[in-house]
Amino acid sequence: MNKLNFDLHNHTSASDGVLSSEELVALAARNGCDALAITDHDTVSGIAAGALAAARLGLKFIPGVEISVTWSPAGDVDARETTIHIVGLGIDVANAALVQGLASVRGGRIARGREIARLLVEAGQPDVFDDAFQFAENKEMLGRTHFARALVARGIVPDIAAAFKRFLTPGNPGYVPFRWASLSDAVKWIHAAGGVAVIAHPARYRLDSSDMDKLFAEFRALGGEGVEVVTGSHDPSEYAPVARRAKAHGLFASRGADFHAAHETPKEPGTLPTLADVDRDLKPVWGLLEPVPGQPQQNGGAVH
Ligand code: AMP
Ligand code: MN
Ligand code: MN
Ligand code: MN
């Protein structure tokens, strides 16, 4: 079961990906995925079209979301607070708690975008707010990736990695600190919607080993189920250490490309190593989702 080609983290133009839901589903099918999840940032507006397209192609589809969270290893939110991402899988996208929660998280994105643009101007760059807003197909979901694309289009930086490195990450002139959802609210909304909660790309967070253990333990105590091990947002050298930590904390493992765009993301959906390639003892998080056709069930049914 951990050899299956499930790809459970991908973006569409409903957030900061560039493909429509239909295009993303077609790409996953071409790449031989056994199942695909769409997990846009703080919105489920790409799910209905994705489900329809997947049904047409006979591809198993998992409705998902990637929730922006502000978390601090110190307990109370303080100067050490950092942004982390929590993926929800197998969610009911009509659930009121989830829908309202996501709307509240999206709420400040335009004002934050204005502030990013203002800081960039202050740093001597042109005003790229309108360009970034153009890149955001879903106007509620203006994000840093759209600013990165605007800076590339203006020739200010060679690629989006450079835009983040020079301008858009903490300590750089276009970074605006922002308060997202709490970890406990994100897990609550996902569970209220019948889904499974997964820590996205843990190796990307600037946490030392002890704070990472704190995050995993707190997430587990809140009822969180899984963690991404194999992701396009990890370097392959990070798979094994994350796998060990997942097992130590009794968390299920997930796999997903974190696909945004062909020239931006290292791997397309369905093309990363499988969980079994990394560690045969990992328990795939899809064992907690609805039964996979043709596969024995791992845990005997629902988890909530
Ligand atoms: P936002 O939610 O607006 O803060 O944007 C977060 C998104 O920015 C992430 O989901 C990534 O797609 C992108 N991102 C963050 N850091 C980087 C980076 N260093 N290089 C490339 N993309 C990044
Ligand atoms: Mn993104
Ligand atoms: Mn993320
Ligand atoms: Mn993502």
Write a structural description.
The protein has helices at residues 21-30, 47-57, 96-106, 109-122, 129-135, 144-153, 160-168, 183-192, 209-221, 239-248, 275-278; strands spanning 6-7, 35-38, 60-71, 82-89, 196-199, 226-231, 252-256. With 304 residues, it is an alpha/beta fold. The protein has two domains: 6-106 and 179-288, Metal-dependent hydrolases (TIM Barrel), CATH 3.20.20; 109-168, DNA polymerase, domain 1, CATH 1.10.150.650. The chain is globular and about 55 Å long. Bound molecules: adenosine monophosphate (AMP) and manganese (II) ion (3 copies). One manganese (II) ion binds next to loops.
Features:
alpha/beta, 304 residues, DNA polymerase, domain 1, single chain, binds manganese (II) ion, 7-stranded mixed sheet, TIM Barrel, 36% helix, disordered C terminus, 13% strand, 7 strands, binds adenosine monophosphate
